[in-house]
Every structure is written in structure tokens, then in C-alpha cells.
Specification:
alpha+beta; about 25% strand; four-stranded antiparallel β-sheet
């Protein structure tokens, strides 16, 4: 009976772990950047959301220091042009901040021009929202310390489930807030469409009025011309 309960707890914990993995918003990219060029990556972040980024250049020669030609300049800016991170001539770095403005945030990478050209490979991790939270600190603050040695399987799995449930709760809350954020963005886009349609309608009426006015002036001019020539 005890074994069955433990197996049931393990199964439930496995389901929760899988759900937490599927709902996590971790994004990782690897891209190539040629010297003398710039590459920007955008991320839509809502206001008051935590975001964490980490980047590093892949060493072309394992076991040796990264050459001086493999350095990059990084700048992270908001949709309004405010700078949140800047690093010049580095081979790795990281940034973290709470977004004060909603919109598309840009992380731009630039490499100094070299002759002959050099191709850099960059690893870039960008986490936002729940994925950016430091869960190890959450576990310590919430007294969810994972034991190094498994003394009691039931207690160990319960602790893991507690931490994963916290992750799932924050994930669901984040999804709920994201839905409201998308709804607000949709309303803004609809208002913009209505305003644009209204302006286009007024512009159409103005264009029609100008065309009719020009046509009337042309008729008036032709009539006067023919009367002066005594053709009418």
C-alpha cells in the first residue's frame, strides 16, 4: 500500500514536471554574425515584467583564449529608445531588468569590421516573465530546500511537487495577465483601425471635393474661352 502511494506520488510529480517544462518560456538561439554587420533580436515584453538575458561568443579554438577579433558590442533598448544594457567589445555578458514600458525590446549585436571578414557564432538566451524568475531563491525563501540525499521518498517528491506547483501557479498567472495584455493591445489596434478608416473617409471626401472643384473650374474656363472666340 505504501509502495502504491509512493508510485502515485511519483506519477503525479512527473505530470507536474512535464507541464512545467511545456509551459516554461525559455528561448535560446544561436546565430552567426559577420564582422562589420549588426543583428537585432526583438522580444515583446509587457510592463513590469522581469527579463533576463545571457550571451556568449562560441570559441572557435577550444582550449585556447578567445581571439581579440571575436568581440561584440551589445545594446538593449526599449520601444521608446531607452537603453537598458550596453556592453562594448566583450565576449560574454548578461543583463536583467524590470520592463518599465510595454512593447518590443531590441537586443542588437554589432561586430567591428575586420579584414579579412570574421564570422562569429553567438549563443543568446532571453527569458521573460515566469521563466526569468530565480526559482532557487524562491525555494530558499519558501523553505523548499531540496535534500542532497533522499531519506524519505514521499517527503522528497512532496517538496518537488510543491516547488513545481509554485511554478505552475506563476505560469498560469502570467498566461492570464498575458491574455489581458493581448486584449488591451487588440483594443488599441481596433481603435487605431477605426481612427485610420475615419481619416481615410474624410480624405476621400476631400479628394472628391477637390476633383469636382477642378472639373468645375475647367468647365468654366472652357466656357469663357469659347465665348471669347465666339464659338458659342
Amino acid at each position: 500500500m505504501i509502495v502504491n502511494k509512493k508510485m502515485m506520488i511519483v506519477a503525479v510529480a512527473g505530470v507536474i514536471l512535464n507541464l512545467g517544462f511545456l509551459l516554461s518560456g525559455v528561448q535560446s538561439v544561436r546565430f552567426d554574425l559577420q564582422s562589420g554587420h549588426t543583428k537585432c533580436i526583438a522580444e515583446d515584453i509587457k510592463a513590469n515584467s522581469m527579463t533576463v538575458g545571457k550571451y556568449s561568443i562560441v570559441n572557435p579554438n577550444d582550449g585556447y583564449p578567445i581571439p581579440d577579433t571575436h568581440k561584440v558590442t551589445v545594446r538593449v533598448t526599449s520601444a521608446y529608445g531607452n537603453s537598458y544594457h550596453y556592453a562594448d567589445h566583450v565576449d560574454s555578458g548578461q543583463f536583467s531588468f524590470a520592463a518599465a514600458e510595454a512593447g518590443d525590446y531590441m537586443a542588437c549585436f554589432w561586430v567591428m569590421d575586420h579584414k579579412p571578414p570574421v564570422m562569429l557564432t553567438i549563443d543568446f538566451d532571453w527569458k521573460t516573465g515566469v521563466a526569468a524568475k530565480d526559482w532557487s531563491n524562491v525555494a530558499k525563501k519558501g523553505h523548499v530546500d531540496l535534500p542532497e540525499e533522499v531519506v524519505d521518498l514521499k517527503v522528497d517528491i512532496t517538496v518537488v511537487m510543491e516547488l513545481e506547483l509554485k511554478k505552475l501557479y506563476d505560469t498560469v498567472t502570467s498566461i492570464h495577465e498575458e491574455m489581458y495584455y493581448l486584449r488591451e493591445r487588440e483594443e488599441e489596434m481596433q481603435e487605431l483601425n477605426r481612427a485610420t478608416n475615419s481619416r481615410m473617409a474624410w480624405l476621400s471626401f476631400l479628394s472628391l471635393f477637390v476633383c469636382l472643384s477642378v472639373a468645375g473650374l475647367q468647365l468654366w474656363h472652357l466656357k469663357n474661352f469659347f465665348e471669347r472666340k465666339k464659338l458659342l
